[in-house]
Design a protein that fits this description.
By secondary structure, the protein is of the alpha/beta class. It has 11 helices and 12 strands.
């Protein structure tokens, strides 16, 4: 089955940036325009884009919805957006801005029953992605600055039959480091239930992409490696779809 590639744009103060291991003090700035970059992703063959509102993640409320809407309108890409989403109203505003689905992390773990009710609402079916961001196997929240105390694998099992669009799994230690995802843990989450799993964090080469195609994930997010030239998006999409590079 083909794997979806979701190129990532991390936004902070309207700029494209990348954080190493989620640390705001270890920010890499890229001198590129977010809308232009998104258009280049579409031209390379992407169907989806993953956008993170880092200001929103830190402040606890979406901060860059207008810019995100502009990216969606200018590219026609289906957008998956996360960062600071704490309420159903936050989700609705992003959907009204053109976002296809919304990533919820902190809100889910701080109000699990409320999140379960929201994700089961008919209007939210297949609109919500649960962010399972883990440090040493334990889910981190609040922009990765706090711990939920819950095992990532236990969470995946509990939500295995919920009407979620996906589980987004990130190993915080791998994120932004280009050394490869946590393949073993990602594979375990992909086997935990019926909800599709998206791998995130650490993809730094085409070989990482190729290996991810073998462990049963629905998609993979690629960020820093695209900006630094260690992965070519068009080639990654071909590998993920099962086509040999260059064909």
């Amino acid at each position: 089955m083909p794997m979806e590639i979701l190129p990532s744009i991390d936004l902070r103060a309207g700029r494209v940036v990348r954080l190493k291991q989620g640390d705001y003090a270890r920010q890499i700035d890229y001198d590129v325009d977010p809308v232009t970059v998104a258009r280049e992703y579409a031209a390379a063959g992407a169907s989806w884009i993953h956008i993170v509102d880092l200001d929103g993640a830190k402040e606890g409320r979406p901060m860059q919805t207008e810019l995100i809407g502009a990216i969606v309108r200018s590219t026609g890409l289906r957008a998956e957006v996360g960062g600071g989403i704490r309420s159903g109203d936050d989700v609705q505003r992003l959907i009204e801005a053109g976002v296809s689905r919304v990533v919820v992390g902190t809100r889910a773990f701080e109000d699990w029953n409320g999140f379960k009710a929201m994700s089961h609402a008919p209007a939210m079916r297949d609109r919500i992605v649960l962010a399972v961001d883990a440090r040493d196997g334990i889910v981190a929240t609040r922009g990765w600055m706090a711990s939920s105390g819950r095992s990532a694998l236990d969470v995946a099992r509990e939500a295995s039959d919920w009407p979620l669009a996906a589980l987004l799994y990130t190993d915080v230690a791998k994120d932004g480091m280009l050394s490869g995802p946590n393949f073993e843990q990602t594979h375990l989450l992909a086997q935990a239930g019926n909800v599709p799993v998206i791998a995130s964090g650490g993809v730094g080469s085409i070989e990482h992409v190729r290996r991810l195609t073998t462990i049963g994930v629905w998609g993979a997010i690629i960020g820093r490696s695209l900006y630094e030239g260690t992965v070519d998006l068009a080639e990654a999409i071909k590998v993920a779809s099962g086509a040999a590079p260059g064909r």
